[in-house]
Each structure stands twice: as C-alpha cells, then as structure tokens.
Write a structure and sequence with these properties.
- The chain is of the alpha/beta class.
- It folds into 3 domains: about 5-200, Rossmann fold (3-Layer(aba) Sandwich), CATH 3.40.50; about 210-405, HUPs (Rossmann fold), CATH 3.40.50; about 420-515, GMP Synthetase, Chain A, domain 3.
- It has 16 helices and 20 strands.
- It has helices at about 5-10, 25-35, 45-55, 80, 90-100, 190-200, 210-225, 240-250, 270-280, 290-295, 305-325, 345-350, 385-395, 400-405, 425-440, 495-510, and strands at about 15-20, 40-45, 60, 85-90, 105, 110-120, 135-145, 145-150, 155-160, 165-170, 175-180, 230-235, 255-260, 285-290, 335-340, 375-380, 450-465, 470-480, 490, 510-515.
- Strands 2-1-3-4-11-10-9-6-7 form a 9-stranded mixed sheet, with helices on both faces.
- Strand 9 (about 155-160) and strand 10 form a beta hairpin.
- The chain is globular.
- The structure holds adenosine-5'-triphosphate, xanthosine-5'-monophosphate, glutamine (GLN) and magnesium ion (MG).
C-alpha cells in the first residue's frame, strides 16, 4: 500500500476480515462495504501483521475448509481477542474461537450442508430488531465439525438440529459466533446481522461512500504524483475510464491516456473507444496499434497462464515505449503508470504460499505484470469492487455508455480461444461475438446481463448445410448475472433468443457450425474460460 492510500484509509473506521480459506469470504467483505464500512481481507497467515497495520475497530473471522481438530490447523491471532474489540466469528471462525478461548470442538457428528432452520433461545445484540426469542429462521450451513463445549462467558442464543451452538456469544466481551454463514444470500437476514455487528455492536460509522471517496482519492493521487506525469492505460472499460477521469480531476494536463490496440479487441471496438473518449473528454489520448506485436508473440502459445503473462509483459513494454515518446514534448517522461485495477483483480491474482486460497488466474494487470518495471503504479481503484466503481463513475458524471459497459478482460479475445490463437480464429470469434451482442441488445437484455461473450472452441464437429457436410468449430455462448464478478450465475435466456443467436451465427459466420450455451455458475466455474 502506498502512503497516499494509507492516508485515505486512516480516515475511516475499519473492519479486518481474517480469511481461513472459505469459498465465500469475499461475500463478507461485500456485506460490510454495503453497510458503508471500509474493510480489508487478510489471509490468516498475514493476519497478525494486517491487524497491527490496519488497526481495525472490529474483526470478522471467516469459515474455512480445515478442521480445528487437525494438528497445525490455522488459528486467529491471539492479539485480536486480547484487544477487546468486537469479533464476529463464522463457522471455522466460531470453531477456532471456541478452541482458543477454552471450549471444545468435535468432528464426526452429523454434518449440515445447505439450508437449515435455527430456533432462537435468547435475544442477542447480533440479531436485535431482526430475530425474536422463540422464532425459527432459515440460514445456510456448511460444516462437518461442531462446537461441543463453549468457552467461559459464552451463552447459546440459537440452536439448529445439528448445531447445538448455531449462535453463541459473550455479549459482554462482544464476541459473537455463528455456525451458519450470514454472508450468503441463502441466509435471507444475514446482511442485517452483519450490519448490526458493524453499526450497533462495533459502533462504526457508514462513512465509506463514493462521494467521500472521490475527494479523498483526488488528494491521495496528488500526494503520490506531485508535479510528476502519469500515463494511464485506457481500455474503454469502466475501470480505466473512471481511473482516467479521476486522475484528470487530480492532476489535469499531467495525464496522458494510452489505448493499446493489441489485435485482441472485439469488432469495431478500437475505433469506438477512441471516438467515445475523445468526444467526451479533453484528455490527450494516444492510440497505439500493437496488434502485430501481441498476436505475433502469442503464436503457438496455448497455456492460459502463459498467454496472460505474455500479454501483461507486452502491455508494460508498450507503455514504457510510449512514455519515451510522450517525453518528446520537452516536459519529461511520465514516471507513473495508472491502471484501473480493482480489489477483485488483486484478490484473485495473489496467492500466499501454503495459504488457503490458490491463484485462480493471473489478471494481466496484477499477477501478469513483469517483476521489473520502470514506472511506479498509480491504482486509485485498488480497494474498490466493480459496483463501487460504477457508483464512482456516476458520481464523476461519466456517460452511461462507459458506466454500464460490460467488463472486457485486458487479455481480450486471446483468453476466449482455448488453445493456440490465430488471426483467422480471431476473425471468426469477432464476428460471432458481434452477432451475439447485437441480439442481446435487440432483446433489451444488455443491462440485465452483467457480462456476455462468445468463446471459440478448439473442437470441430460435423454438420450439414445445404445438403453438404461441414466440419467446423463449435462456438460457446456465455452470459452471466453478477454484482461484482466474484460470484456469478448463468443468465436464464428465453430459448427463442438463444435460438436466434445460434441460427444467425451459424448462417453468417463461416467456420462455425455449432453453438452451445454455457450454464456454469461461478464458483465452480469462472466467468472467462481461461
Ligand atoms: N487495451 C488496453 N489499452 C490500455 N490499457 C489497458 C487495455 N486493456 C486493459 N488495460 C489496462 O488494464 C486495466 C485492467 O483491465 P480491466 O479489463 O480489468 O479494466 P477495464 O478495462 O478498465 O474495465 P472492465 O473490467 O470493465 O473491462 C485497465 O483498467 C487498463 O488500465
Ligand atoms: O482486465 C482483466 N484482466 C484479466 O486478466 C482478466 N481475467 C478475467 N477478467 C475479468 O474479470 C472478471 C472475472 O473473471 P473470471 O471469473 O474469469 O476470473 C470477468 O469480468 C473477466 O472478464 C480480467 N480482466
Ligand atoms: N464452512 C466452514 O467454515 C466449515 C468449517 C469446518 N471445516 C467444518 O467442516 O466444520
Ligand atoms: Mg477491460
């Protein structure tokens, strides 16, 4: 974290979320942010350090795949319990809290996965105004182990059939533990419990708003950059557009944007982006045609991570070469590179050795960056989720064409052609993708869908067209609903719409003779295929 970022964060009440590796830890962060409170995630191995550095006013311990009964299983830093601040401990968090404070956990009892009902035994500050003594409420459980003896000072507030301690708390010490997961939507009142925890129990202000962030981010950018110059990678996506406008507000003419056409863009996209941006903003924009460089370097590369790293490195090469050209105006070369990196890019790209979460994919702008870079990074959106960036974009007055745009990955179509890419495959995919998006727009679904795209599979199948045999590629269509891209569901199209897309693609795009629809949610899938 830069000093400037630390300065923004220092002004807010903060919550630390200790990640024990649960699939849904991100959702805890979402719920806390939605309650207007700033929070950060730290994997349990780094939790002690993060706790000291962040100085949070409350801590949430996540669930996780380990069993506290196993030797060497993770524990929460003792300093958290010693600090006397409110703690909310969920599932694995509850189990380790019980063990660390003198209680007991056992495995081998009946497990609970999915929906369960809890029965409230006694009232608690955690569900004040939400649940009542004597009531039964649905929650979402996912555990095999269970607490069998509570630490001193704890009382049972709710039970379920297989969890005698569905909620147990020490109201005096403000330590609240749940066997179920309040962060998931399948616990319908869960968000209210988390809001109670941060507001009523921990007394934290709702001061994390994009209106406040705008002013703070501008000060922070000025503090970091000073009189220096910034080159901002502009992709046409909402993240970099918001980053560019924010940085322009902060430093004015010391900003130059660079749009790299890597030849992996969608049909007509390069021209659209450049025109749209130039029409709306008086910010210098350089349009670089680097398609030969990128497509050439990717020839024969089929491993997804190699593709991502190759692209990440070439982006930096191009930015550094452009920085030298910008210096030709006699005002010096930009010392800073700005990118629209978001919190999910960071979370998903970084893994900690031996940690609970593995690297799923290296986002080109984080895990794909080369180790040695000449420019320093300016990433004003690094703490934000996508929906927060859109809110900030509206706050900054960005036109809807930018704010509502579907995300498009930096590596572009290269990660939508599993296996080796070629110019021919890129052309085929561009045409299919354009038809698909056109039909979605015609059906009035663009804004309902979070992201939609076509994928060209390295598989050929047999077909029959005009009485002749065809042997061509399969095209997979993907459309998802999501809030922040961290979790997603496939979009339930009306089959007529899908049918129209398939017919048009097969009729109009030479090289494709079959279309399939991807019905995988995230998790277990990811949104992109590579
Ligand atoms: N073609 C490009 N030219 C210049 N910079 C790019 C390009 N593609 C990506 N980048 C840089 O990489 C960053 C991350 O890309 P990413 O796709 O996550 O964000 P975005 O394109 O700004 O928004 P969105 O996620 O909505 O597509 C961008 O914010 C931008 O700074
Ligand atoms: O700029 C980017 N650089 C990347 O390397 C990258 N990989 C995935 N994405 C986008 O991130 C979101 C989540 O994607 P996944 O579920 O596939 O990880 C989706 O919106 C993806 O399109 C990327 N964006
Ligand atoms: N969801 C969880 O945190 C599960 C905790 C622990 N692994 C169990 O099975 O009980
Ligand atoms: Mg993008």
């Amino acid at each position: 974290m830069t000093a400037a970022h630390a300065d923004i964060i220092a002004r807010h009440d903060k919550v630390l979320i200790v990640d024990f590796g649960s699939q849904v830890t991100q959702l805890i962060a979402r719920r806390v942010r939605e309650a207007g409170v700033y929070c950060e995630l730290a994997p349990f191995q780094n939790a002690e350090k993060a706790f000291k550095e962040l100085n949070p006013k409350a801590v949430i311990l996540s669930g996780g795949p380990c069993s506290v009964t196993d030797d060497g299983s993770p524990r929460a830093p003792q300093a958290i319990f010693d600090a006397g601040i409110p703690v909310l401990a969920i599932c694995y968090g509850q189990q380790t809290t019980a063990v660390q404070l003198g209680g007991q956990v056992e495995g081998g009892h009946a497990a609970e996965f999915g929906r369960a009902d809890i029965q409230i035994q006694e009232n608690s500050a955690l569900f004040e105004g939400v649940w009542e003594k004597g009531g039964r409420y649905p929650v979402w459980m996912s555990h095999g182990d269970r607490v069998t003896r509570l630490p001193e000072g704890f009382t049972v507030k709710a039970v379920s059939e297989n969890a005698p301690f569905a909620i147990a708390s020490d109201e005096k010490r403000k330590i609240f533990t749940t066997m179920f997961h309040p962060e998931v939507v399948h616990t319908p009142d869960g968000a209210k419990l988390i809001a109670n925890f941060v507001h009523k129990i921990a007394g934290l202000k709702s001061d994390w708003t994009m209106a406040a962030f705008r002013g703070e981010a501008i000060k922070s950018i000025r503090a970091q950059v000073g009189e220096g110059r910034v080159l901002c990678g502009l992709s046409g996506g909402v993240d970099s557009a918001v980053a560019a406008v924010l940085i322009h507000e902060a430093i004015g003419e010391n900003l130059t944007c660079v749009f790299v056409d890597h030849g992996l863009m969608r049909l007509g996209e390069a021209e659209q982006v450049v025109t749209l941006f130039r029409d709306h903003y008086n910010i210098p924009l350089v349009h670089v045609d680097a398609s030969d460089l990128f497509v050439g370097a990717l020839e024969g590369v089929s491993d997804p991570e190699t593709k991502r790293k190759t692209i990440g490195k070439l982006f930096i090469d191009v930015f550094e070469a452009e920085a030298k050209k910008i210096a030709a105006d006699g005002r010096g070369a930009p010392q800073f590179l700005a990118q629209g990196t978001l919190y999910p890019d960071v979370i998903e790209s970084v893994s900690f050795t031996g940690g609970p979460s593995v690297t799923i994919k290296s986002h080109h702008n984080v895990g794909g960056l080369p180790a040695r870079m000449n420019m320093k990074l300016v990433e004003p959106l690094r703490e934000l989720f996508k929906d927060e960036v859109r809110a900030l974009g509206r706050e900054l007055g960005l036109p809807p064409a930018f704010v509502g745009r579907h995300p498009f990955p930096g590596p572009g179509l290269a990660i939508r052609i599993p296996g080796a890419i070629s110019r021919e495959k890129l052309d085929i995919l561009r045409k299919a993708d354009a038809i698909y998006l056109e039909e979605i727009a015609k059906a009035g679904l663009y804004d309902t869908i979070w992201q939609a795209f076509a994928v060209l599979l390295p598989v050929r199948t047999v077909g029959v067209m005009g009485d002749g045999r065809t042997y061509d590629h399969v095209c997979a269509l993907r459309a998802v609903t999501s809030v922040d891209g961290m979790t997603a569901d496939f979009f339930p199209f009306d089959m007529n719409v899908l049918g129209r897309c398939a017919t048009r693609i097969i009729n109009e795009v030479k090289g494709i003779n079959r279309v399939v629809y991807d019905v995988t949610s995230k998790p277990p899938g990811t949104i992109e295929w590579e």
